[in-house]
Amino acid sequence: MTFSSNGLAILALLGSTAAFAPSSVIAHRHSSTTVCSAGGFGATTSKSASKRKGNKKSKQKPSILSDIEIDEAPNESSLTPRLDRFGLPLPTEDDIFPPLTSDVVRTRVTDRDEFKKDEVADAIRNHIGVNLDIFDESGHSIHEEKSNNGSSRWRLKLLHKDPPVFIVENFFSELEVQDYKSMIESKVNNKGNKDAVQISSPTFSSYLSLSRRTSTTWFCRYELVTSLLAKAQALLNVDLTQMEEPQLVRYRTGEEFSWHYDEIPSTQLSNGGQRLATLLVYLNDLEDDRGGGTVFRDLNYPVNEGEKGSTKDNYNQLTVRPKQGTALVFFPAFKDGNPDPRTLHKGEVALDTKMIAQLWIHEREYQASVPENNLQIDAADGVREELERLGLKIA
Question: What pTM was computed for the model?
Fold first, then answer.
């Protein structure tokens, strides 16, 4: 769900949450090792970024890609633990992503189809939340968007109460979906495009490889994706200056983004502060048996009795299936900037091509690193026009 930033994107944070997680969710630690953390743009992976190194006039911005120290607990269940090339035990997945204990609050929704505005308001009270002024009592947006197939309205659905996880159906119109998919196709065929910086490598290249991202990401100029920015601004009631570089992501067959957090490491908060919201929009459908879902490890969601995968108590691990035009919204940190380890998630291995557009929202003004001279202000007029066209207002 996940992806990252100061040019944003390549990873999604591994290990940094240990510094923020409540004591009840942090396992006892022992010897330490170094792991690459995700959260930002890694300059060494981009030809465009490496070219700028020689330009003494351009000021180097700090990269969110960094090495962080994480402690590993010994694997007591194994008599012959796997060792690295130095003869040290490899950290396990539980060392990097400590399981949550039973006393960590997680509040599920009880009815997946019922919308209660007061319940949603309560769910977002500790987060930047969503702009409920643009939704009616049934969860439908007050604006209508016209298309070749008629008109549609957004539909807000609460999938998990605490931490809050939402989807917004019909967030992108069919025309917008096609426009963004065409942008991906054009960038694939035009690698010298200066309007985007392409990242095409695994998230973690270290021998640990406990988190993997094998998709391709393009960091876009703000002015080229004004519909995404305008809708994000209306939905989350935030300022353009808080937005990271917009991204387009493609997962081909067999690609994935394994367990990760979307938060920014504590050492990299000088640019914009912590990420407060993750917004991603699915650009195509994937059938249930074709993978590619966004899975939250520690959250559950009600299913109907007899439904595929239903359990005894009729709750399943929360998995959001890719559906064309639908947006997924969750909050990697509380509005005070304190990260929320309950939002650990992954992008399942995709058995067909999966495409998304995504955006992160920071606490305060964020300065983009890529592409060169990428400024939110350049999109301001286009965003204003989009909001007027949609009849959306922000506070």
Answer: 0.78
